[in-house]
Structure formats: structure tokens, C-alpha cells
Give the backbone structure.
Amino acid sequence: MKKRLLTIFVFLLSFFPFLGYAQEQKSLRKQADLLYEQSSYAKAAAIYERLAKNKKDDVDLLVRLANSYRLIKNYEQSKRWFQQLQYTKLLPISELLNYAEVMHCNVELTESRDLLKEYELITGTNEYIKMRVNSCDSAKAWMQSPALIVVKNLDSINTPKSEWGAWAINDSVIVYTAERAPFVDKRKGTYSRTGQPYLGIYERDLYAKEKSKPFDRQFIVSNYHSGPLLINAAHNLIYITRTYNDSKTIREFNSNNGRISGIRRLELWYSEKKEGHWSDLKPFKYNNPENYSVGHAALSKDGNTLYFVSDMPGTLGKTDIWYCTKLNDGSWSSPVNCGFQINTDQEELFPTIGTAGELYFSSTGRLGMGGLDIFKAIGEKSTWKEVTNMRFPVNSVTDDFLFTPTSDTTGFLSSDRRGGKGSDDIYSYLILPPPPPPVKEVIVEEVVLANNKFVGIVVNKLTSKPLVNVSVTVDNKGEQDTAITDDRGRFGFELKPGEECSVKAEKEGFLSDHKNGLKYVKLQESPSVVILQLDSIILNKAIKLEHIYYDSGKWNLKPKSKTELNKLVALLTENPTIKIELSSHTDSRSSDKANLILSQKRAKTAVDYIISKGIAKDRLVAKGYGETKLLNKCKNGVKCSNAAHQMNRRTEIAILSF
């Protein structure tokens, strides 16, 4: 009997770990489900990931995991779990649309279209599904035939976090919305949906070395999101969208699970600048966050019409663009819907007004590239006669929004497109002049008689804005002509059939740029525009040289390093007045003294190579900094990965004078 009891006791002891494990799994699942229902998708995904290792046949868990990643725009991870559901034939029909969205955002347009057609075949068709199918086709076509617009990541501003919604204060300073950075905001707390910091309003000088700073401290003190913003033309009135964060949390009942979840709505606030200072923020007259959202302001050129986004009663879709007109006493009239010519049954968001009074906005309810697309509308208030998609490359297969012109041809936009530095990035854009009209060729004894003039444009490399009064030298087999760029950065030059030439642009305070081997036949191809980009000279600003490699503890140049240094030689040759410092940096491994000596030898080796290519010795300074200028926390005694140490091993140049 005792032996039998002992056997039972041992069995129970062996069962308890499994029982504890099962209870732990059940507790984690409840926690993850609650986070998901509260829209805390980043935290929910982390727990679902743990559970999925042992629950690969749990359809609801895997669907929630895939959608958690989708909703925080981690489309690669979302695709991974949707594909697992598909391969195991566990994917619910109801999730085909979400899976198609993820594939579309991963630029797998054929696969996205196939999933949409499968859903359409099973459930029947409607206008929304047709629009999404057609968007797969239009995205392919527009990417193969891009509009005459150059879009460039503003990588001096963007970080792995979110930056978006830029407004130009002048030629160098922008104000924008960003996830709060620890160097300007020490408070803790993150947005539960993404796991990232809350949004605030910042400003940055594009040409200064200093980091971003709060635009005004009161615009960042909210315990929740602040942004986007609108600044009027006189820069003395600002409207800010803020997330309602009253102490009485707004709550709604979820009938599916009997739980109560918090929801947040938007409000508009405004401030006026008087005697150099911004007034305290005041609420917009028609805020009503207990019932609906109001946000995303845009102001007409004369300041008498205020556009905004809301889901107030009378909204045609999920969110619409509305407007108010200014009354004689300075107050705003009752809101009026912009109408079905602008609004759809989906989302219209982020209106802005262009230099000619045109309306730009983003929508998910019109044929486009996918996600939020930027559209341009001609008209005003509730009367609109033309709405056009801005097409690729302004739009991408993900979300594109807040198109803010700074001139007729330049400005900024925001996007979470692939290839950026963060979740949302700020991009500059430049609208190119149209190509010359088609050449009418008359062939007489194999001689082509035609209009041989071509168009060039010179822009600021950082902002993509046109540069005026730039001297451009056109060299055609030793025969040189000089042109000066006009108020749109343009210049013209002539090239005859069978010939080729080079052009070089120079302007004081900028590094020059050139194009060689321009051929007549090649330039006949669209868009027939030569673009030169001038980089502004910022003294003592560190510029990293890529692909400069050394063996561990050595200072001999590798062949690839010489290729990169040859580019620097060309730069110094084209700009014969500049003097530079070439510096070498190590990580913290090895002793401080040894690293200082090694870095000096590496810097000297690189400088000696440049001198050997004909650059005067007095234009170069070799400086080894060892580990004295680390870019991260990996100092002596701190354990770091190889990748973290690699960030500190670099070669840089800085312009000392010009």
C-alpha cells in the first residue's frame, strides 16, 4: 500500500511542472488577449510570439499575432504568420483582406491581387474590393512610369523613430511631429499601440549641427500625443492636433467579450504669436471629444477658411474633410462637409493647402497605389472640379500623407515607405520641369535637323530646393559656355547629334557637382532633364566615408578603401579651395593609448594616399581620435555586440575652410 501511495505521490510531483506550465500559458494568453483588445498591439505581439511556439494550430492566436504586427506596420513579421496560416490551410476566409493588405505593403502586388480575387470569388464583389484590385494594377503601372518628381529621404532629420508632417519656417528651419526623443523629453511612458514614445512638436535647422529641440515647450507637455500641426503663412498662428486625455477616460463596451476598453479621440487647439511668444493653447470651438474627433487643420491662403478632419454627425465615410468660414467677428461658422467630390466611404485625412490654393489630402477610398495616397483637388469649400492622384513616387504602396508645399515646385511629404530610416519619415520633393516637346526630325542626306536644346536643373542636395544664380559650365570637346540658373534653378544648353558634353555647377558655399558623358541620343529619352545636386558646405561637420576598411590592428589600405578615397580625390580636385581634416576612429577594445596610435597611423595612411594622387599636402590634416569620440555607450568596461562596436570604427572628413 505504501509503495502504491509513493508511486502516486511521485506521479503527482512529476505532473505539477506541466500543470504550472499550462497555467502560465493560460495566464499569458489572457494577458495578450486583453492587450490586443486594448489596442496595445506591440506588447500583445511579444506575448503571442512566445505562445505561438507551442500553439501552431491555434488559429485565433496566430491570426491575432499576424494582425498585431500588421497594425504596428511591421509587415514582414505579419507576412510570416499569415503565410504560416496559409501553408497549414488554417487561414480564415475573413482574413484574406488583411493578408492581401500585408502583401501589398511588402510590394508583392501580384500575390495581393490573387488574394483579393480569391476573397471576391468566395464572398462576392463590391466597389471597395474592385478598387483594391485595381490599385494593385495601378501601383505596378505607375512605378514603371514615374511622374516627373524627385522624392528624397531627409536623412539628416529622420531616425529609427517616427518623424513626419514637416512645415518650413524659412529656407533652413522646419517644424515637424516626432516621437519624443529622450534628449529633449526625459519623461517615461509609451504609446501602448506601438510601444514607442508619444508624439510631440519639434524644430530643426537643416544646416546646423545641433539636434532637434521642442518648438515650444507647451506644445510637448501633453501626456499623450501632440501633432500634426499647421502654421499659417505669417508664422504667427498655429493649430495643433492633440489626443484627448481627460482624467475621465472615454470608455466603450465591447459586446463580443463583455469588456470595457478605453478609446481616444482628437481635438484641435490653437495658439497665436504675440511679441515673439506663443500664447497659451486654446481649444477649437467645435471640439467634442466625448462624441467625435476633430483634427488635422488646414488654412486657406487668405486665412478665411479652415479645413479639418472629423467623424462628426453628417460624415459620409469613416472620416471626412470639413470646413468652417471666418465670420465678421473673427469666429468660425458651423462646420460644413466638403462633399462627396472629396470625401468617400473610407478615410480622408491630412488636408493641406498649396501655393495656388489647391487642396492636398490623403485617402484610402480612391484608386491609387495602396494605403493612404496623396491627392490634389482644385476648388474650394464644397465645390470641387478636379481630384487627381499624385502617383508614384509621391505615393507608395504604404501610407503617404501631409504634402506641404514650400514653393510651386518644392516641399515636404511624409511616408512609411520601404527604404526609410524609421516607421514614418519626412521626404523632400522636387517637381521637375516637363521635357522638351518631341523633336521633329527632318532627315536630309542623313543629317538630322532639330531643336538641340536641353534643360538642366540645379538643386540643394539636402532639401532638393532649386538653387538660383548658380554658374554652370558646359564643356563640349574643349569649347566652353557658361550659363546661370534662373529663379527655378534651370539652365539650358545645346548639344548636336553625335556629340557629347559635360556640365559642372558651382556656387559659393557649396561643393560643386558635375555630369560627364552627356550624349545627344541619351538625352532624347524622357525626362530629358539633367539634375545637378550641390551640397552646402558646413564647416567642421563630420561626414562619414563609407567602405574604408582595415584588418584588425593594421593600417594598410585595402583595395576597396582606395576606391572610396578616389572619390574624395575627385571631390578635392573639383573644389580646389577647400581644406579638410581626415579623421580615424576606433572602438573601445584594446587600450586607450594603443587605439590612439592606431587611429593616427590609419588617418596618415589615407592622407598619404590622397597626396599621392596629386592633392596638395597643405590641404589635408590627418587626425587619429582613437576611442575619444564614441557614437554610442560602448566605452571601456561596457559589454557590447560586434555590430555596436562597428558603429564606432569609422573614417570621417570635416571641411576646415573653403
